[in-house]
Design a protein that fits this description.
OB fold (Dihydrolipoamide Acetyltransferase, E2P); DNA polymerase, domain 1; 5 domains; five-stranded antiparallel beta sheet; binds 2-(butylsulfanyl)adenosine
């Protein structure tokens, strides 16, 4: 009897530890043990259960799902990238979205038909059907390369394994959102913070048998590759795939104009709590696929869709302290440390106060009772202060004038508005170790080096331990030291080594993006990579004698303006930056940027536009030129092949300059003729 109760006690303890590791892994994304240690513990528990019937009868392991995903999923390139969506948060922003697409398409009066679909808060996946057979199932990954999770996806019984309909295209890629129903989630509550984590945990783990135990569901909402393309509208696509056996959301609806959009948004918002799945907004998409094609994408998201988010959830709490955070571009952000409070199912203990001016304007003080809100994944914000609850002895918050590193801070004068910036910034670059830490986090992020197993939290830990101070250190890690840390075993170290090696091979645009120059996002990094072509050329920016002429040439690039050039100049002039980036480059193999030589009407030609066109916007004209192999420049120079002059308000000076340089000038009629030829 004594032995039995001892066994039960040990068994319960082991399960408690396993639960703790599940929580650390799935909910906090911060495992403390290696996969091997975790698996051994799980095995011990199963062995005990198998050996002693009375332990099995306790039914303690029923909901203990999951094992940490291992770096073992095969990586596969998506046929078409899986982009993300832009967001809007209110009616005015939605109106702006409509205006932007109408401007792009040069639609003067008519409204554009949209379709509003619930935005399911789950995990995205893509399913590829070849000749009707399901052949590939991938996770989103970084959007370009996904993970092969076909076997796990196949366990979802409602996903068709084949399409029998003859009408279906030879290649059909279905984009969908995987979720766990709110009711089903009740059974897994102990293991996961929310349904989304549960769905993610289930899909990402290695054993399809375990996936099959969690009742996953899905909604199909879009397509990737389709050959031949037989769909004309998003609504008609959804109808067809629903006929072929896919599950589509019944609440989708076509809408025309801002009032119908708003009405649909409000209607679904009011139904939200009654649905068996989490949604966080409505995705509004241009319904006509030929218009979608004309609108195209920016580097991250389609121009033809946006997510109109539901309004934020709010809560009241108290400010315990105000701390300062330093961002990767040196921005000093005040953060309110608040008494933990649950907002929309998530415990919040920090809220951003944006900047110095915001604190002044709202007169926010330590001890204040405040109203905070949390919308989507963004950091919670302080909306207002309840001054009536303020302690009489409280005093105004004095914003620190120095960075955490001790350096001076300053507010810059904005080039565009000529006004003093609201944001105070540290005057240093990589020499400020707090900026350096944030830059390191940026460098390892998905969009930059994308190093599996080296997330923000690990970077933070390694930085605290002084393992890494600058980017090059990432590749000089002392694995013997890491091995001594809790949570690092042979397996995770080997995985990290592999991931580091993979990430050293990087394209020039990703490299430029990764070094984190202010105002140089992914889109601009691509433009710059196209200009420099190779890392050797880019590196000349750090050379005092070559810098000026290069920077001057950047003026020609459409999309790169004075703000960007000033920012690049500031970055490369700084000696610490220069040294650190050179060290970093030594650790990498940066691939030349191959400007895709698109064979088209404007292959290898340089164009510039002036004036507006009758039936297309400047943005669309530029996109068409690029799709046809052309390069669009921002100023007149000898390099230019064509100046294209629209009928509406062209700049005479540009036309004169072009003629002087013998550049071919093309008028609007001729331009249209070329496009239609
Ligand atoms: S359309 C190019 N429609 O939201 C991206 N996305 O933030 C087009 N999502 O990765 C996406 N429901 O995982 C679209 N009805 C819906 C959606 C939806 C959920 C997810 C999807 C996507 C993410 C974008």
């Amino acid at each position: 009897m004594n032995k039995k109760s001892n066994l039960i006690r040990t068994f319960r303890e082991k399960i408690k530890i396993l639960k703790k590791h599940n929580h650390l892994y799935y909910n906090l994304d911060n495992p403390e043990v290696t996969d091997f240690e975790y698996d051994s513990l799980k095995k011990e528990i199963t062995n005990l259960e198998n050996k002693y019937k009375f332990l099995k009868e306790l039914k303690l392991t029923n909901n203990l799902v999951g094992s940490p995903p291992q770096n073992k999923f095969k990586k596969i390139k998506h046929l078409h990238p899986m982009l993300s969506l832009s967001n809007v948060f209110d009616k005015d922003e939605m109106k702006d979205f409509l205006k932007k697409i109408k401007n792009f398409l040069n639609f003067k009066k008519d409204e554009i038909e949209l379709i509003g679909e619930p935005k399911i808060d789950g995990i995205s996946a893509t399913l590829v059907y070849e000749k009707g057979r399901l052949t590939k199932g991938l996770s989103r990954g970084d959007g370009v390369i996904g993970e092969d999770i076909l076997e796990n996806l196949k366990t979802i019984s409602s996903i068709p394994k084949s399409i029998e309909n003859k009408e279906a295209p030879k290649i059909l890629e279905i984009r969908c959102e995987i979720y766990i129903g709110k009711k089903d989630f009740e059974n897994f509550k102990d293991n996961f913070a929310n349904p989304r984590n549960a769905a993610g945990g289930s899909l990402r783990q290695k054993d399809p048998k375990v996936t099959s135990k969690i009742p996953l569901k899905y909604f199909a909402y879009g397509f990737g590759a389709v050959e031949p393309m037989i769909f004309k509208e998003q609504s008609n696509f959804l109808d067809k795939i629903s006929e072929w056996g896919f599950i589509t959301n019944p609440l989708s609806q076509k809408v025309l104009g801002i009032n119908e959009i708003q009405e649909h948004h409000e209607k679904i918002d009011s139904l939200r709590s009654t649905l068996n799945y989490d949604i966080d907004g409505i995705v509004f998409k241009v319904n006509d696929l030929s218009l979608q094609k004309r609108l195209g994408n920016t580097s991250n998201s389609p121009r033809w869709a946006t997510a109109y988010k539901f309004s934020a959830e709010k809560a009241i709490t108290v400010i315990k302290d105000i701390a300062i955070q330093v961002g990767r571009t040196g921005a000093i952000t005040p953060v309110a440390k608040v008494k933990p409070v649950t907002v929309g199912g998530v415990v919040v203990s920090n809220a951003t106060l944006h900047n110095e001016d915001e604190i002044l304007r709202k007169d926010i003080r330590v001890g204040d009772t405040i109203n905070i809100q949390r919308a989507g994944d963004v950091i919670p914000q302080v909306i207002s202060v309840d001054v009536s609850k303020r302690n009489k002895n409280s005093s105004k918050y004095i914003f620190p004038k120095k960075c955490l590193c001790g350096a001076e801070t300053k507010k810059e004068i904005s080039k565009s508005t000529n006004k003093l910036d609201a944001v105070r910034r540290c005057t240093k670059g990589y020499e400020c170790k707090f900026i350096a830490k944030e830059k390191l986090k940026h460098i390892v992020s998905k969009e930059a080096l994308n190093i599996d197993g080296l997330g923000k939290k690990v970077v933070e830990q390694f930085w605290e331990l002084k393992f890494i101070k600058e980017p090059a250190d990432i590749f000089k890690l002392d694995f013997e030291e890491i091995k001594k840390l809790e949570g690092w075993g042979e397996l995770s170290i080997n995985n990290l080594k592999k991931a580091l090696k993979n990430s050293q091979n990087i394209s020039l645009d990703k490299f430029i993006y990764s070094i984190g120059i202010r105002h140089i996002g992914q889109e601009n990094a691509k433009i710059l990579a196209g200009f420099f072509g190779s890392i050797q050329e880019f590196q000349k920016l750090f050379d005092k004698n070559k810098r000026l002429i290069l920077l001057k040439n950047l003026n020609d690039l459409d999309g790169i303006g004075e703000t960007q050039i000033e920012s690049i100049k500031g970055f490369v002039k700084n000696d610490a930056n220069s040294k650190i980036i050179k060290n970093f480059i030594k650790q990498l193999q940066v691939k030349d940027y191959l400007v895709q030589n698109i064979n088209g009407k404007f292959s290898n030609k340089k164009l510039m536009f002036t004036g507006g066109f009758e039936n297309m916007s400047r943005s669309e004209a530029k996109a068409i030129a690029e799709q046809n192999g052309g390069k669009v420049l921002g100023s007149i120079s000898k390099k230019l092949d064509f100046l294209i002059v629209g009928n509406s308000k062209p700049t005479k000076k540009k036309i004169d300059q072009a003629k002087e340089l013998n550049i071919k000038v093309i008028n609007e009629k001729e331009w249209n003729k070329i496009l239609n030829s």
